[in-house]
C-alpha cells in the first residue's frame, strides 16, 4: 500500500493498560506527564490507525508474537517476535496485521495525562 492510498479504518485492535506512572511525582518538570505500558493485540487482518504521529508522545514498541506491519513514509516494514521500533517526533505511521494469527505488542510511551486517547 503506498502513500497515495487511504489508510483503512481501524478495526480488530484491543489495548490493555498494564501500568501507568505519574511522572510529575517522580521527576521535577514532568508535571502533567505519564509513563504508560500497554499490551496491544491486533487480530488477523486488523488495522491500527488512523495515520498518526508521535509528536509529544514518544515511545517504544516490542513485538511478543505474530507479525506487525508498520507503514511509514511509503515503506512497509514487518516486525516479528523479539523485534520492535521507536516512535519519536518524526514518526508518522499506521499498523496492520497481515497474518492469520494475532499479533501482540508491548507499547511504552510518555504522554500528557490530559491527552490519553490511543
From TrEMBL:
It comes from the Bacteria. Residues 39-108 form the Cupin type-2 domain. This is Cupin 2 domain-containing protein. It comes from Gordonia neofelifaecis NRRL B-59395.
